[in-house]
Prior knowledge:
By secondary structure, the chain is mainly alpha-helical.
Amino acid sequence: MKLNIMKTFMKYFAIMGAVLMLSPSCTEVLEEQPRSVLVPDYFASPAGIDAGVIAAYSYLRFVYGAESHMSLTVMGTDEFTHGVESLSIPINTYVGGLNPESGMIGVVWNRAYAAINTCNGVISLGPEADMNPDERTKLIAEAKYLRAHWYFLLVQFYGDVTLTTEFITVPSSIASRAPMKDVYNIIVQDLKEASAELPDIPEESGRAAKAAAKHLLSKVYLTRAWRLNQNADYDSAYFVAKELIDNQGTYGVALLPDYANIHAEGNEHNSEIILTCERNNDELFNFTTETYGVDPDVGNAQNRSNFFFRIVYERLPGMERDMENGRPWARFKPTDWLINDCFADKVNDSRYSKSFKVAWICNYGDDARIPTWSKRDFLLGYCDTTQIGQRKFGEGDTAIFMYDGEITTEERGRRGYRIFDSSDVSDQNAYFPTMKKYDDAQRASIQATSVRPYIVYKFSEAYLIAAEACLMSGRTPEAVDYINVIRERAAVNEAAKTAMRITAADLDIDFILDERSRELCGESMRWYDLVRTGKLIERVRAYNMDASPNIQDYHALRPVPQTQIDLCIDPTQPDGKYPQNPGYN
């Protein structure tokens, strides 16, 4: 179904300015000027309840596909380290710029509270709206889902956070931090109600339905079980995930037969997708700095995911920047562990080849940059005399190749094109296998950001959640079954399915984390996964050599933005200051 919600995202984002100033986050949004249209009664009108929900959705674009959130969740993990052109190396290395004053740290906090207050207005005042009762119930249920979604992001990042379910109409500098337990209780309550009240199937792409609420609820239960030692939540996570899997037809979701098609460009609304964050080709509705200059941070709401994982291929002979190969920002580089160990089985498991690009084809560029065979090549035995002075490759030939393992010097010379193997360390942060899940060759120009829908949740994760919950609650045989569904789907062919199956002897939490990487790598989940399972420090020290020397236990939480500390008073604290997370003072 074609998404109509995008046509109104920016309009409602603009008129919601008064609501944003009422956030309890105590940041610079307090300085925005109110607009008379947004008195509280507005949320009791059909137009107001619809506007509020759409505005709350629009803020997801500051998270999904945006550089700040992707940097905070992709880098500094066992999966990815920083690339040569990263602007946020301290987030990966856990030193220096990973501090309360970092702009990237503050984006999630500030946008979450603006969206939450909007949801509070819809939930508290929306029932008074004179409109179709079913539509009103659906919109309020969407607001409950979105409020839970935003609070879940906050509690994972920061731990104890300010908690309010009231629509704030008078700005205040008074704020306290509620215990994680209380925050999780609100999240669970909202998601249970949303699961009952949302439609079975989304009416439009990008909007939540029952599958989105149930999927997030299972994930919340699983996280709360780990973080708060509430073992009963493992059972709850399992039963909710199982219900979604067992009744997938009712909720309009299903696994695709081919892993490659899940992220195929133009196929973002397939049956495996539970929730997307939508964008479109209209600059007016896509948070461009040029068309929405009232907010200096709108650039961080653009989907730049198609830039972040790319090598600087244009620096090498035979290559120039083009649409297919993308804008090479080289922000995130896969760790050696991810490429060589996690994806060790490249024979039976198709997910590596379907997730990563390893060959670049010559598109010429400047003829002076095309390598030619030399007399030295002849003396080394790589060519004959007739080839001296001739091009080593032409347009359409391989120009760059990422070799799996090590290759001899002699073989490199014979091939002519540039080869990188596991022994190449001097360029390790510039040239590497490139993740291709976010490729966008249909964008407006080489420099343009992507308007592809960003995939937030996939149905395959429901199997991984069920497996993890089963493992932790003593249902190991069932956990194996759920994992094998995913692994068999990933097999290169029918014959490989046998090799892909695991047994109970193979399964522990590290195997599940490895499997999550094979299925979900680079999808803005890894930092959360490692923190949830208590594996962040152990696995980063073992597999991310850039981060290993510096990461400490306190890095399992992010620092509260300094603007919050400076602008707010917490009367529950002896010094009256809003508390910072340990280690960041």
